[in-house]
Amino acid sequence: MAFDPRTGAILAMVGGYDFARSEYNRAVTAHRQPGSAFKPIIYATAVNEGLSPATLVVDAPVVYEPDDLEKIWKPENYEKRFFGVISLREALIHSRNLATVRLLEKVGVRQVIDFAKTIGFTSPLNNDLSLALGSSSVTLVELTSAYGVFANQGLRLEPYALAMVQDNTGQTLEQTLFEPRQVVSKETAYLVTNMLEDVIQRGTGLQAKSIGRPIAGKTGTTNDYTDAWFIGFTPNLAVGVWVGFDDVRTLGETESGAHAALPIWMDFMREALEQLPMMSFEIPDDIVFVRIDPSTGLLASDQAEQDTVEIFMKGTEPTQSAPQRIVPTDFYRLDQVLDGQAGGPSSQR
């Protein structure tokens, strides 16, 4: 499914590979688990709640033991490795499951569900931490149009297929009037878009870098490789690809979003973008660039061994300088840094 995020106009849609064999439009009707393609919604909620791409989160093993011990849940990362303490940016770039589960726990499941509804999701979403791993089934149109909100600086437009209906005399009988609504701030939309640009530059969507345009996007893969997704966008075109079987069976070993869906997305975008001008994502006025210590998320000192430039919504940037480099075994000092990070959401759920 491809649409113009600035108008909502659906430009192309494929609901199956053979209409003669099946008239079922999977792009509109099929509800499938999005896997990690849902993660940007969680990170967008976090940013909307006052966190930043530099906020630290722990990517390490965790076990949830509810009252019913038969339902112990132990989420895992895709490749069974852990990165430790990392920023939200790095967690999204590398699609870290455990970091995202902890982020969802911090932000609140209810907040994410409410945010998802705000940007256009209508499918029911699981009210538990499995939402972090994309456990709730959604449609391709829902997910792609939600990404379109980020592409369009927080403005949402309902996707439409028919612009107008005219009779044989040329009289207009029906016309679609697109009405944009500012559902999230420009700053939130840009921060998420910027992180998703890094997914293309050095993350799971690296193949798409070869297109040579400003692109943001995210892969998605479900358990046993039953669903493969890639949703990506430029400022003037948002495109989503889902690959899977109707009877929910595996696509094959290692058929992830990057392997099965992204190449299809790239083939389409290469041709589609030839007809469109190259555009960059506009930076809102209230976005500031700050030199930070990536290991703490705090301001980089003049003696910093490593630093990087990070972006923040004005008013959420760090004001405290990073202490001397913290070694992983110095847990007490690390806790102090994590506890001292400003701009966190309320602990209420």
> What is the percentage of strand-forming residues?
15-25%
Oligomer: single chain
Radius of gyration: 21 Å
Q: Largest sheet, described in full?
A: 5 strands, antiparallel
CATH class of the largest domain: Alpha Beta
Biggest sheet, spatial arrangement of strands: 2-1-11-10-9
Q: In the residues, how many domains can be counted?
A: 2
> What's the β-strand tally?
14
Succession of helices and strands: EEHHEEHHHHEEEEHEEEHEEEH
Shape: globular
Arithmetic mean of pLDDT: 91
The end-to-end span amounts to 35 Å
- CATH homology-level superfamily of the largest domain: DD-peptidase/beta-lactamase superfamily
- Structural class assignment: alpha+beta
Query: How many separate helices?
Result: 9
Please provide a written account of the structure.
- This protein is α+β, with helices and mostly antiparallel strands and 349 residues long.
- The protein has two domains: 2-163 and 178-275, DD-peptidase/beta-lactamase superfamily (Beta-lactamase), CATH 3.40.710.10; 287-340, no CATH class.
- It is 28% helix and 17% strand.
- Strands 2-1-11-10-9 form a five-stranded antiparallel sheet, sandwiched between helices.
- Strand 1 (2-3) and strand 2 (10-12) form a beta hairpin.
- Mean pLDDT is 91; it is low at 342-349.
